[in-house]
Amino acid sequence: MMTGAEYIESLRSLKTEVYFMGERVQSVIDHPAMRPHINAASVTYDLAHDPVHAELAQATSHLTGRPINRWTHIPRTQEDLVKKVKMLRVAGGITGTCFQRCVGMDALITLYSTTKEIDDKHGTSYHERFTAFLIETQDHDLMSGGAMTDAKGDRSKSPHAQHDPDLFVRVVERREDGIVVRGAKLHQTGAVNSHQFIVMPGQGLSPDSADYAVACAIPADAPGVILVFGRQVNDSRKWEGKIDQGNRKYGVVGGEAMVIFDDVFVPWERVFMCGETEFAGQLVDRFASYHRQNYGGCKSGNLDVLVGATSALAEMQGIAKAGHVRDKLTEMAHLTETMYSGALSCSYECSTLGCGTAFVNPLLANSAKLNTARYYPEVTHLAQDIAGGFLATMPSEREFENPRVAPFVRKYFSTGPDVTAEERIRVGRLIENMTGATPIVECMHGAGSPQAQKVVLQRLVDWKQRQALAERIVGVGEVGPGQADEE
Ligand code: SF4
Ligand code: FE
């Protein structure tokens, strides 16, 4: 298992083709826009060596019996699923942001069972290939980017019916030695600092979209793979200074990129689905359930940081004892624990898939993610309420170096002999950045938009069973009249 430092160094040898602000990036690990996110991902490596948290972040491979990083582990038990959530909360609290590696983890978990099910139906050999790939990923402790979300074009049309056939990733050529894929996956978390991508379909597919039913693994620096790193709100602060970015070490959210596959060759041993459209919807649902489980873990860890920052700022500003402030802080903690409890509940209520993989309860996992999309912004509003208007009007860190205004900034932003202006502004900047547009959009649309969770909930809720409960009490419907009056 690599340490965080070894992971970062391992990225140096990759020749990943990355573009940002109109230019080719020569070294992602040295680029100020990317380095904080790389630091956040490195925490997933360091935790496996941490004397306190190794018990959560390490696992034993059920394939080799060797110790591995849990971010490459296939959960086999309820305990594995619970540890996954607890590990994410710890990492979320250490980084205060997204550490990115869970997308690839959930892609590994999902494909392990799905490839077996495809083989059982079609007599293919995807599972054997995938298992070999999984062992390599575990043994080399690789970070995988889970590449699922297509460009999608006109959302009312199927992949094969788009005006441009490349708007969903597809197979453009089948050769004796492999396939050639073309298309793009958008919003790819951790893409610039992944060793490899695991491509999967992004939605259910009809039989006439067979070329789009493709799952495969591609090295991040394979010929034809091009990455375009996305902008974030306030991102220029990363190269302007230290304080104003709020979370200088780990950044804000995952550092997402567009991943373009410009006719990329994939050898057959790295192809895990090719044309089996009837498995695409199930694969996406399964992946989504695992990733929605996570959101009650990582985001509650992030909110622990925000609750802590808000509580600290309230003390600095002399309002910590005010009744309404204590009430709001308690509400922030309550919403955080509600998110966490959803992630734990879907883990405890798990089932076992055919190949021995522990599977979260999808109804509870989707509810957990929906709660995160709703509660995370509520918690940020409360943080902004308590912090006050200075969140939006703080002077820049450069003012501390300007001899004409620095004494005034220090004087008027200090709140007492024990609180310097710089300390107060540092905490304020953390709150400002954690409650800004980028993390709010991410907690809403990451792991699928709220409507995607509602569609699953509508499908999974047993409406008839609920109706029967009510009808039995009042004695109507199929239960028959009069039952309510029987005593
Ligand atoms: Fe992991 Fe959370 Fe980031 Fe998803 S949003 S990759 S679950 S830290
Ligand atoms: Fe995410």
Kindly describe this structure.
The strands form four sheets. The chain has a six-stranded mixed sheet with strand order 2-1-10-11-7-6, with no helix packed on it. A four-stranded mixed sheet has the order 5-8-9-12. It has a two-stranded antiparallel sheet with strand order 3-4. It folds into two domains: 4-278, Butyryl-CoA Dehydrogenase, subunit A, domain 2 (Beta Barrel); 283-463, Butyryl-CoA Dehydrogenase, subunit A, domain 3 (Up-down Bundle). Strand 1 and strand 2 (23-24) form a beta hairpin. It is of the alpha+beta class and 487 residues long. The mean pLDDT is 96. It has helices spanning 4-12, 35-46, 54-57, 78-95, 101-122, 126-140, 237-240, 280-316, 323-348, 362-387, 406-413, 421-434, 437-445, 450-460, 463-474, and strands at 17-20, 23-24, 58-60, 67-69, 144-147, 170-174, 178-189, 196-199, 214-219, 225-229, 256-267, 271-274, 351-352, 358-359. It binds iron/sulfur cluster and fe (iii) ion. Fe (iii) ion (FE) is lined by residues 98, 189, 446-447. Fe (iii) ion is lined by residues 98, 189, 446-447.
